[in-house]
Specification:
The chain is an alpha/beta fold. The chain has 2 domains: 7-172, Rossmann fold; 190-293, GMP Synthetase, Chain A, domain 3, CATH 3.30.300.20. Helix content is 34%, strand content 22%. The protein has 9 helices and 9 strands. It has a 6-stranded mixed beta sheet with strand order 2-3-1-4-5-6, sandwiched between helices. Strands 7-8-9 form a 3-stranded mixed beta sheet. Helix 6 packs across helix 8. The radius of gyration is 20 Å and the shape is globular. The two termini are 31 Å apart. Bound molecules: guanosine-5'-diphosphate (GDP) and magnesium ion (MG). Guanosine-5'-diphosphate binds at residues 15, 17-23, 36-38, 42-43, 65, 124-125, 127-128, 155-157.
Length: 299
């Protein structure tokens, strides 16, 4: 027996890296469940964001961007994770940038061919479209690419178009009881989210390819009314990367730690004691066993 016409379902949010998938989910939920940076491969895991209302619940599935050149085990795992989210979806949001269409977008579109759920195309970052007439052109080009359920222009950052989007999403949800408690925002643990905050600050502080070679493992996360005590290890792939992350006289690591601490303090409203260690594990991102040990679960 279902509760009085309650609606609930899964929405897979897919697209190439960096189009704004995580930003979109965070904005809809009004809370940061998934980290965001201007760099590709920021999201490495499947992360659920639960949007609960009186008569419906939408479970957004944030996914790693589907990307080419998946030459390491971690990258193959990320692509598999994204592909898997499509299987259970009641609706797919295919996120693209209004100002740019690339071969990687084309790859994702191709993967969507076998998807049974309706697919809504989103043209994100419309705040960057000038002149505005260019948007009409982008909409018509996108509509011709596939028989989309809808094509909707949005700006995840500025919230443009999100009200009509969430209403549309609600209407696509099947009748079902809620699958999560209504006060639950994400399926991810506090440890996981804290590690992600550290990784976000690392990614923002480091240039070029180094962010892709590191991961963060929380060894201790204790929270009580006096505050949070957290120890985390930053794993890098090579000795040379360790020096870069630590920085001259430890300055960069201090800066990263401070940024992470401030965000955690703002989030939990308690003092935060954070200790970070940098360690080397040769080539962890291409080693299936290291991946499992470091929390990269197989979908
Ligand atoms: P993801 O890799 O698809 O999850 O993308 P993210 O959510 O991490 O965002 C990638 C970058 O795009 C970040 O720098 C975001 O701030 C930026 N971004 C996301 N949405 C918008 C938007 O609507 N407008 C603009 N101008 N930037 C955006
Ligand atoms: Mg993301």
């Amino acid at each position: 027996m279902t509760a009085n016409n309650f609606r609930c379902g899964f929405v897979a949010v897919v697209g190439r890296p960096n189009v704004g998938k995580s930003t979109l989910i965070n904005t809809i939920l009004g809370s940061k469940v998934s980290i965001v940076t201007p760099k590709p491969q920021t999201t490495r895991h499947r992360i659920l964001g639960v949007d609960s209302h009186a008569e419906h619940q939408v479970i957004y599935v944030d996914t790693p961007g589907i990307h080419r050149n998946a030459n390491k085990a971690m990258n193959r795992l990320m692509n598999r994770t994204a592909a898997n989210a499509l299987i259970d979806a009641d609706l797919v949001l295919f996120v693209t940038e209004a100002t740019r269409w690339t071969e990687e977008d084309q790859d994702v579109l191709q993967r969507l061919e076998s998807v049974k759920a309706p697919v809504v195309a989103l043209l994100n970052k419309i705040d960057k479209v000038h002149p505005k007439e260019a948007l009409l052109e982008a909409l018509s080009v996108m509509s011709a690419r596939r028989d989309f359920a809808e094509v909707i222009p949005i700006s995840a950052r500025r919230r443009d178009g999100l009200k009509s989007l969430t209403e549309l999403v609600r209407d696509y949800m099947p009748e079902s009881e809620p699958l999560f408690p209504e006060d639950m925002l994400t399926d991810r643990s506090e440890d996981f989210r804290a590690a992600e905050v550290v990784r976000e600050k690392l990614t923002l502080a480091l240039r070029q390819e180094i962010p892709y070679g590191l991961t963060v493992q929380v060894e201790r996360f204790e929270k009580d009314e006096n505050g949070i005590a957290m120890h985390a290890v930053i794993w890098v792939e090579r000795d040379s990367q360790k020096g870069i992350v630590v920085g001259k006289g430890g300055t960069l690591l201090k800066k990263i730690g401070r940024a992470a601490r401030l965000e955690l303090k703002a989030q939990y409203r308690v003092p935060v004691h954070l200790e970070l260690w940098v360690k080397v594990k040769d080539n962890w991102a291409d080693n299936e066993q290291d991946l499992m040990r470091l929390g990269y679960e197989s979908p």
